[in-house]
Amino acid sequence: MTRALVVLSGGADSTICLFWSLKKFGAGNIEAISYDYGQRHRIELDCAATIAKMAGIKHTVLPINTFSVLGGSALVGVGDVNGKDGTNADLPASFVPGRNLIFLTFAAAYAYQRDLHHLVTGVAQADSAGYPDTRQNTLEALGTALCLGMDFEINIHAPLMFMSKAESVKLAMDLGAMDALAFSHTCYNGNLPPCGTCPACILRARGFQEAGIEDPLITRTMRGQQ
After folding, report:
1. Total structural domains within the chain
2. What residue spans of 35-135 are helical by DSSP H?
């Protein structure tokens, strides 16, 4: 039971977790899954495909249009990603209710049919976005429900759960993930080069700055490197 499925958004955190998984489980034991859920930064799917190819692993994209139909989030609509959630002012407008719960549930269903007993996700409780579905207690409860609901052993790994962004950047350096991070995508507005002003861009930039490491994505896209 050493094979694993990585939820790969194409962002920095999931890319780091992919390389963590490669080290822990071995390249021959890894698959990746991404979701086309109507996100305004859909460019991340192309990035996920590129990163999976660089890592030499199988990559699957599942379509989910439910979040777009439900609305209520700037990440799947036309609202301001710099604003606040319309239902809970303590959360950012980019919060997509249930997103990580659905992602991991679909990932578990995919894993069930392929005898993959480990799910790896890039969520982090220390992430200043403060999404409630990125917390340790949420993952623990969901993991229990998935095991019971499918009568199948599922282990959810969140390597970055208690890391700061700077710590995750340093981990990426140790794992040899920097070349892949040059092709990752974080910008909520879907801009390339990244906008630099949305919450995701600001958080990423702060992490690299505090780690004292240059962001390879910025080097590649804003300084003319291919």
Report:
1. 1
2. 43-55, 66-70, 99-112
Whether the CB-CB separation of 122 and 141 falls below 8 Å is answered with no
Rounded CA separation 207/118 (Å): 28
pLDDT band at 1 (very low <50, low <70, confident <90, very high): low
Predicted model pTM: 0.94
Report whether 192 contacts 185 (CB < 8 A).
yes
H helix intervals, 57-214:
66-70, 99-112, 136-150, 165-175, 178-181, 199-211
Residues with Cβ < 8 Å from 215, sequence gap 6 or more? 181, 204, 205, 208
DSSP H or E run through 5: strand 4-7
Q: What percent of the chain has pLDDT over 90?
A: 77
Q: Which domain holds residue 186?
A: 4-222
109-151, pLDDT tens digit by residue?
999 999 999 999 999 987 656 789 999 999 999 999 999 999 9
**Radius of gyration of the chain from Cα atoms?**
17
Q: What is the CATH number of the domain that holds 56?
A: 3.40.50.620
Sort 8 into a burial class: Cβ within 10 Å, 0-12 / 13-18 / 19+. Answer: buried
